[in-house]
Amino acid sequence: MMLLYLPKLDEIIGGEDASPHSMPYMTFLKFDITGNTYKRCGGILISEDVVLTAAHCNGTNMQVILGAHNIKSKENSWQVIKVCKSVPHQQHKKPGNDIMLLKLREKAVLNRYVLPLPINHSGGKVKPGSVCSVAGWGRIKEYNKDESPTLKKVDLKVVSEKICSETFPNINLKNFICAGDPQENKYAYNGDSGGPLFCGTDLQGIVQGGNYNKPPTGLYTKVSSHLKWMKQTIHTMRCKK
After folding, report:
1. Is 146:13 a contact under the CB 8 Å cutoff?
2. Where is the Peptidase S1 domain (predicted)?
3. Annotated catalytic, 193?
4. Which domain holds residue 163?
């Protein structure tokens, strides 16, 4: 789920099926790796034509599926829209800045299956011990490549900076939320990158990455650290005609 300094996280481990269409802002993102295979990520629809995701989910021939629960079997609720522009954070290779905005070629048709999640962040700090949730269509087994056809979610505990530093000793944790109790076998993994971490009703983080040798503690890019960048970037995003 991330670039350079951490192994990728791409699956929900220890979770369960989300209630179908209970998260109408969830976005399934697919893009080319070699031209004949594709990679998957999650994302959050934050307006009719803008998706929030992780910067390491950038690629070619990008498109999103909105309104999906099962992404292996086409549903009447699906809206498949191409991405016309991707804008990763200008410092996305530095820890804590793995965030990107996607401009869609056309506006989504809003209905009960597809609704944006406005970013009205209170800015409150998430305390260790808080229970948050993460969702995605990533892998569901630790030792094979089986990916979930249906949207999964799992509850995770936020851990202290001290515990997080034991897993990620050389990383500045300022712009991260660290979640995943070392005593519980529950975490995000391959394919869940770019998906949301909710604490209460607030979108607090974006799935970034972890340490394959020390699951389940993982890193989530802190949304509140990037609100100004997001607002400024959205106003400048245009599709080429």
Report:
1. no
2. 12-235
3. yes
4. 131-224
